[in-house]
Every structure is written in C-alpha cells, then in structure tokens.
Amino acid sequence: MFTDWSEALEAESLPLDPTTEQQLAAAARATAHHSHDKHDLGLLLDALGLPTDPDTLTTLLPLIPETGDTPVKTTPAPALETTEPIDVPVIPLPGAHPVQELLDWATAHPAAAVRNRAARITADLAELTERRDTEAAQHEAEQKVAKARAELERAQEELRTVKAGTRTTAAAPTGARTGGSGRTREELAAIRSWAKANGHQVADQGMVPKRIQEAYDTAHQTPVRENG
User: Which of 10, 109, 119, 213 has the fewest CB atoms below 10 angstroms from its CB?
Assistant: First the structure.
C-alpha cells in the first residue's frame, strides 16, 4: 500500500506495459540486421507483424549490413507474456541464411503470435521449394523428350535419304530400256540405221513403227540349220 497520496497518483499514471514499444523496436532492429535491402526489410517486417511505415523504414535503413558483411546478431528483449510456449512443428530450411536465422528467432519467441507466423512462413517456404523442385524435374524431363524426338526425326531423315540414294543407284543404266517397245536406245538407233539403209521411212527421233521393228527382227534372225 502507498503511504503517500502523491506516490499513488504517480504510480497510477505509469503505463501497464512499459516495454511493449521497446520490444517492437528491438525486433525491428534485429530484422534490419538480417535484411539485404529496403525491399527485403519491408517484407520481413510485414511477415513478423512489425510496423512498416516510411518513418520506421527510414530509421532502420542504416542498420542494414553492407553486402558481404556478416549480419549482426542481437538478443531479443524479454517479453512480458507468461503464456506457455506451444509446440509448433517447424521445417528447417537448408543452409545458413539470414531469413532462416530470423525464422529461428521467431520460432523461439515467447509470443505465440510470432511463433505461429514463423510456422506459417516456414510451411509456405517448404511448399514453394517442393513446387520449384517438381517444376525443375518436369522441365528437365521435357528437355530430354524434345532431344530424343529431335534425334529420332534426324535418324528418320537420314534413313529416307539412304533409301532415296538406293533408288537412284538402282535406276536404269546406259543400256536401259525405254518407251513401250522394251528396247534400249542403242537397239532403236540400230533399227533406224537399218531401216534407212533398206528403204524404210523412219524418223530420227520418237517411236519406231512396230512393222519396222518386226522387219528388223526378221532380217536379223539366225537361220536354223536342218539336221540331215
């Protein structure tokens, strides 16, 4: 009990949570030490439910470490909450990273709201990581299929080329038979020469009349000797 009325009045004017703003300021400074730039700082502050107004960001910008510097670790101020910590499963992210360190800090925070937010963020990051890996595997498989299809089409084209070359090689040689007479060019030339020499009218080009071909064949038949 107060023994002096003035002391009671003075005590009555004191705030019930004098360290709440101090806690928020300490958390904001810790976040700034683990940020890469202003954009990163704004995202982290919003994820942890801390103020993101322009004045706060301007105040915290000098605390962002330079590129290549080791982030400064700070010990969060003790909280006034007396609630028992809840068991929140947290999936650790691979590798040492400022975001992971910040999540570790938030996971161990005595405030249940901060711990729950850290758990949700960790679960979202794990889901995004799984989706990224799945899409990467799908993209790799699609590239393999496209490569195999291209190789197959190239092999089919080579096969068609080989077959076309075989048909060209097997085409009619110099003595091939032409036209519907079934005779070679050399035979037709010989028939024309014979026909002209024997008084037959025949053109220098084109088809040789069938009657002249038959006369040529009759004149060039080998006589068969009769057996005595």
Answer: 10
Does residue 134 contact residue 123 with C-beta atoms inside 8 Å? no
CA distances from 183 to 39, 87, 188, 213 (A): 90, 100, 7, 10
**0.85 surpassed by pTM:** no
Residue 49 lies in a domain: yes
Q: Would you give the DSSP letter of residue 62? A: G
Residues 84, 75: Cα–Cα separation, whole Å: 20
The tens digit of pLDDT for each residue in 170-196 reads: 554 544 555 556 788 888 888 889 888
Residue 153 neighbours by CB under 8 Å, 6+ apart: none
Report the DSSP beta bridge partners of residue 183: 178
Domain extent, residue 57, equals 17-131
CATH number at residue 196: 4.10.320
H or E element in which residue 45 lies: helix 38-47
Q: Contact at 8 Å (CB) between 194 and 219?
A: yes
pLDDT in tens, 75-100: 555 554 444 555 555 555 555 578 88
